[in-house]
């Protein structure tokens, strides 16, 4: 398609994309011209009539800055274009206008006009209530004056103030441990009145007390990308007071099918079926209160188009010079348990608020203007003109951990095999120190800001723990699972002090320790979890040792959940962004016969010196993504099909790209040793000396195209059956469940009585 | 670090047979209010090494934790309050944990114990 349709109620004109020249028609699409810039349609008609009879001047879209001028004759249109296009036009207040020929499109193909409701009842969205004139003009004035006395946080397109708790745009959530204080005195009266609303005083209604306030000031023409407020961040109703200016707010509900569509879309499709998205529009006058609860809050995206004028039925309403909204919410303490699972980040891992992303967790924005949007990007046709996509799809995957201090094994070859094995597992290979521990320390805050979605399977495991259980999270990363079950006591540990510090700041109990050497009493814990940790350990002995430690610290009957990245990624494109390591990494001295017996796969010993990034790697990276956080449908059958096809392409990939000797003659064996890139955006890297040093030493590299410092993390990804084989070697525990979930292999072990 | 955490920590240096309980060196304490949950206290009670908990409480200046304890005391709300406070609300912010066998000092900084071992300790 080389055109976009104008969302014009009067009709169906299409605007050619830049650079596409239509045959002359009687219709001129004129940009930088319209009511929003002070040129009435009548004025425009008068000016253009000097070239010939003008049939109509219609607004093109809702921006108020573009019109379609329809002449009777194409020749007159051509004359007008020739005379005015791209030139300063004195009769149009000296503006430089730009024009293109437009063609009329049958109404069926033009975008449906969306009627704008002036009452919430008209929208028919459960949980949506609009109270016109909730406050008086005097109160409005007083609130606006009070707000201007307080400092603003300036975002790219609007200004905000946060009270109670700061809404952190990077994680789209609040930090419960960072309470800013009480709500300000100037909203006291309003809060009192809000607290008496019938919707908030119903029994079982959790909205009170309201403890978070975000004030947004939108300049004229600035809107808000479609989003649902993060489920896990706030509970109960969301109350938003409009002051100073009006706007039209659009509500959208995407069907689940449209989410599947999104994947196709990413793959290149241009159109999203319109009937897969329900839309409603509601006019929000100044001094009105909008209340969102239930379905309206949890299921419908809300959106303010970036327009300077709004069409409210037959009226053109110019937005005020600014609109200020006061949004009152209650911070949630504990997971969301709503029934709208498809949009719930508490209940579905990696949930995007927009249906147009795959289910990976979102990375923080890399464009400077992204931070102002409390939302995921929307790339739907009608909003893409105004809304820049603001989030990169990012990696799933959680932290790692482990370390061991090295024992110098030289000269100890005469030790028994058992002792040697122990030493081997205790020695922390250089590859882990360099490409796991050091990397996570360097990227900790950024990594943490991208790690908030919880996997349902992990959550289910934790929630099944009986009240009062003590749970150890070994390799807890930023601690996103700590406290998930509020009736249990969690303790986390991680090898990275930087990540543990984040846990501590969030009020979690955590300590710095090695997963291969847990500093815990044996049999103390009711359960233990190891989420995305074992794949950072570089040999089987160490992986087994880590499992042994988990089993050791739980009580008899206690359960251990272990998840690791799978070779069989649901999204093969991810694997293509990884750098296969040349052969299985092994410490040079393990050529000892005893170890050969233990190596599951023939090692082709290599050293760090020959582990290099392939030159093409950077080119193949489109985004930093980890394993996909999962197909939403979760259907076993579909998953299996997916796996089959992926493993075929996986093998293809390996036979094409792998040149290491181990691959020859073992074509059944998928590649398992990788460097997985982590992109640390420059604006985050600049503040840490670690990245400067890492770049200087060649440990990290720059990717100017992406504006990021790129670190490599070591991964041993697990093949089907491998995790079971590994854990079955650990004495004293049985595998009670094993499954594949969201590109991870998982087992649940139970310690024997 | 809470005393509950202290009660589960042990020194795992290679060859150490009695790494529990770690003695506490206090430089700075903090009290952070935690929701009172009697059921949790009753659940955790059987898991605790009471002597170690009692001694730890003493070392952070709490002398109202009885040395001898009986499960019937869990019905006494006054006891539960003290138990709750000592177990969950007092945090060691700065200081150290010291291995009873080797004297190895594990630093506690900003509330976080560092239990990593040196290369010659594993």
Automatic annotation (TrEMBL), chain A:
InterPro entries the UniProt entry points to: AlkB-like, AlkB-like_sf, AlkB_tRNA_MeTrf/Diox, Methyltransf_11, Nucleotide-bd_a/b_plait_sf, Oxoglu/Fe-dep_dioxygenase_dom, RBD_domain_sf, RRM_dom
The species this protein was found in: Riccia fluitans
Protein name: tRNA (carboxymethyluridine(34)-5-O)-methyltransferase
Domain of life: Eukaryota
UniProt GO molecular function: RNA binding; tRNA (5-carboxymethyluridine(34)-5-O)-methyltransferase activity
The EC number(s) this enzyme carries: 2.1.1.229
Annotated GO biological process: methylation; tRNA modification
Catalytic activity as recorded in UniProt: 5-(carboxymethyl)uridine(34) in tRNA + S-adenosyl-L-methionine = 5-(2-methoxy-2-oxoethyl)uridine(34) in tRNA + S-adenosyl-L-homocysteine
Assigned keywords, A-Z: Iron, Methyltransferase, Multifunctional enzyme, RNA-binding, Transferase, Zinc
TrEMBL record, chain B:
Highest taxon of the lineage: Eukaryota
Cited InterPro entries: Trm112 (IPR039127), Trm112-like (IPR005651)
PANTHER family according to UniProt: MULTIFUNCTIONAL METHYLTRANSFERASE SUBUNIT TRM112-LIKE PROTEIN, UPF0315 PROTEIN-RELATED
Entry similarity comment: Belongs to the TRM112 family.
Subunit structure: Interacts with TRM9.
Protein known as: Multifunctional methyltransferase subunit TRM112-like protein
């Amino acid at each position: 398609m080389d055109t976009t349709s104008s969302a014009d109620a009067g009709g169906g004109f299409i605007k050619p994309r830049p650079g596409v020249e239509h045959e002359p028609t009687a219709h001129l699409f004129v940009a930088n011209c319209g009511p929003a810039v002070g040129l009435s349609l009548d004025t425009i008609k008068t000016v253009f009539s000097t070239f010939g009879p003008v049939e109509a001047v219609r607004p093109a879209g809702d921006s108020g800055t573009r019109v379609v001028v329809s002449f009777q004759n194409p020749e007159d249109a051509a004359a007008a274009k020739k005379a005015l296009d791209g030139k300063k036009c004195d009769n149009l207040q000296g503006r430089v206008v730009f024009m293109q020929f437009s063609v009329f499109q049958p109404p069926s193909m033009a975008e449906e006009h969306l009627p704008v409701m002036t009452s919430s009842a008209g929208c028919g969205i459960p949980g949506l209530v609009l109270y016109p004139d909730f406050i008086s003009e005097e109160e409005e004035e007083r609130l606006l004056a009070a707000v201007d006395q307080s400092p603003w946080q300036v975002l790219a397109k609007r200004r905000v103030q946060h009270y109670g708790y700061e809404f952190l745009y990077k994680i789209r959530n609040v930090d419960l441990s960072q309470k800013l204080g009480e709500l300000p005195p100037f909203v006291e009266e309003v809060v009192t009145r809000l607290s008496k609303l019938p919707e908030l005083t119903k029994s079982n209604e959790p909205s009170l007390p309201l403890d978070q306030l975000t004030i947004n000031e939108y300049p004229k023409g600035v809107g808000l990308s479609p989003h649902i407020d993060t489920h896990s961040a706030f509970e109960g109703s969301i109350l938003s007071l409009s002051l100073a200016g009006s706007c039209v707010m659009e509500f959208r509900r995407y069907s689940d099918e449209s989410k599947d569509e999104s994947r196709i879309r990413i793959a290149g499709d241009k159109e999203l079926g319109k009937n897969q998205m329900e839309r409603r529009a509601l006019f929000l006058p100044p001094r009105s209160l909008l209340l969102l609860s239930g379905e309206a809050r949890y299921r419908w995206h809300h959106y303010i188009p970036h327009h300077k004028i709004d069409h409210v039925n037959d009226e053109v309403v110019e937005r005020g010079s600014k609109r200020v909204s006061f949004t009152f919410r209650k911070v949630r303490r504990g997971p969301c348990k709503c029934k709208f699972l498809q949009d719930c980040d508490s209940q579905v891992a990696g949930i995007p608020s927009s249906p147009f992303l795959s289910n990976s967790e979102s990375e923080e924005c890399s464009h400077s203007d992204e931070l102002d949007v409390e939302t995921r990007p929307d790339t739907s046709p009608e909003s893409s003109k105004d809304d820049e996509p603001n989030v990169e799809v990012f990696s799933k995957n959680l932290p790692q951990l482990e370390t061991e201090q090295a024992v110098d094994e030289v000269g100890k070859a005469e030790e028994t095999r058992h002792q040697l094995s122990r030493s081997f597992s205790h020695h922390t290979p250089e590859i882990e120190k360099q490409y796991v521990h050091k990397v996570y320390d360097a990227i900790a805050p950024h990594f943490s800001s991208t790690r908030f979605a919880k996997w349902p399977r992990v959550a289910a495991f934790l929630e099944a723990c009986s009240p009062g259980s003590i749970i150890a999270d070994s390799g807890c990363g930023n601690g996103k699972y700590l406290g998930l079950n509020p009736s249990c006591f969690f303790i986390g540990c991680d090898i990275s002090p930087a990540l543990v510090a984040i846990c501590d700041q969030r009020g979690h109990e955590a300590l710095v320790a090695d997963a291969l050497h847990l500093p815990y009493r044996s049999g103390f814990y009711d359960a233990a979890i190891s989420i995305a940790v074992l794949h950072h350990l570089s040999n089987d002995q160490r992986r087994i040792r880590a499992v042994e430690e988990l089993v050791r610290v739980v009580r008899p009957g206690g359960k251990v959940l272990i998840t690791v990245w799978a070779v069989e990624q649901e999204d093969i494109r991810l694997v293509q962004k990884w750098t296969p390591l040349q052969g299985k990494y092994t410490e040079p001295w393990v050529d000892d016969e005893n170890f050969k017996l233990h190596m599951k796969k023939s090692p082709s010993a290599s050293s760090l010196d020959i582990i290099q990034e392939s030159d093409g790697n950077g080119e193949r990276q489109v985004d930093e993504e980890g394993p996909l956080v999962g197909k939403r449908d979760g259907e076993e059958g579909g998953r299996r099909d997916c796996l089959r096809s992926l493993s075929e392409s996986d093998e293809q990939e390996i036979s094409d790209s792998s040149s290491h000797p181990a691959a020859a003659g073992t074509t059944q064996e998928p590649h398992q040793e990788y460097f997985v890139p982590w992109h640390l955006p420059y604006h985050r890297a600049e503040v840490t000396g670690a990245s400067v040093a890492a770049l200087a030493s060649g440990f990290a590299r720059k990717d100017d195209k992406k504006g990021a410092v790129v670190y490599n993390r070591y991964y041993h990804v697990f093949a089907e059956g491998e995790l079971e084989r590994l854990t079955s070697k650990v004495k004293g525990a049985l595998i009670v469940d094993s499954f594949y979930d969201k590109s991870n292999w998982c087992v649940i072990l139970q310690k024997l009585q | 670090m809470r005393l509950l955490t202290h009660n589960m920590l042990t020194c795992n240096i290679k060859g150490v047979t009695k790494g529990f309980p770690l003695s506490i060196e206090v430089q700075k304490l903090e009290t952070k209010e935690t929701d009172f949950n009697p059921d949790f206290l009753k659940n955790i009670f059987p898991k605790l090494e009471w002597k170690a908990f009692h001694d730890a409480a003493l070392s952070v200046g709490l002398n109202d934790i009885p040395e001898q304890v009986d499960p019937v005391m869990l019905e006494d709300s006054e006891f539960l309050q003290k138990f709750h406070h000592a177990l969950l609300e007092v945090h060691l912010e700065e200081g150290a944990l010291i291995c009873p066998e080797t004297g190895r000092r594990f630093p506690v900084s900003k509330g976080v114990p560092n239990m990593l071992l040196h290369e010659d300790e594993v």
